[in-house]
Write a structure and sequence with these properties.
By secondary structure, the chain is mostly helical. The protein has one domain. It is globular and about 55 Å long.
């Protein structure tokens, strides 16, 4: 049985758009990450898509600003990112550590 995910925190439409566009960018950056990807075509396609996703992220933030939403509530937005697997997804952007050489630690 799959465990039930916690509910998303209450977000404005603009905040939801911001979170979605941010995670799209993170996913694309993970596909471009040269320490993880194995072929240039996959990275190229992700890089091409990154341009339009960056514009969508900028538009989401612009909309929030124009509506008077001048603060990002990082606690609430952070919870939303965690519910949407943002920690794992953003981890794919990090450089893969070098493999350990030598005997395992006791």
């Amino acid at each position: 049985m799959v465990p039930e995910l916690p509910p998303l925190p209450a977000l404005t439409r603009s905040e939801g758009e911001l979170v979605d566009r941010y995670l799209e960018m993170v996913d694309l950056l993970g596909r471009i990450n040269p320490s993880r990807t194995t072929d240039t075509y996959t990275a190229l396609r992700a890089a091409q898509a990154l341009v339009s996703r960056a514009v969508a992220l900028k538009d989401a933030l612009t909309t929030m600003h124009l509506r008077g939403e001048t603060e990002l509530h990082h606690g609430t937005l952070g919870r939303a990112l965690r519910v949407l697997d943002g920690e794992r997804r953003s981890g794919l952007v990090a450089v893969v550590p070098e493999p350990r050489v030598g005997p395992p630690e006791a």
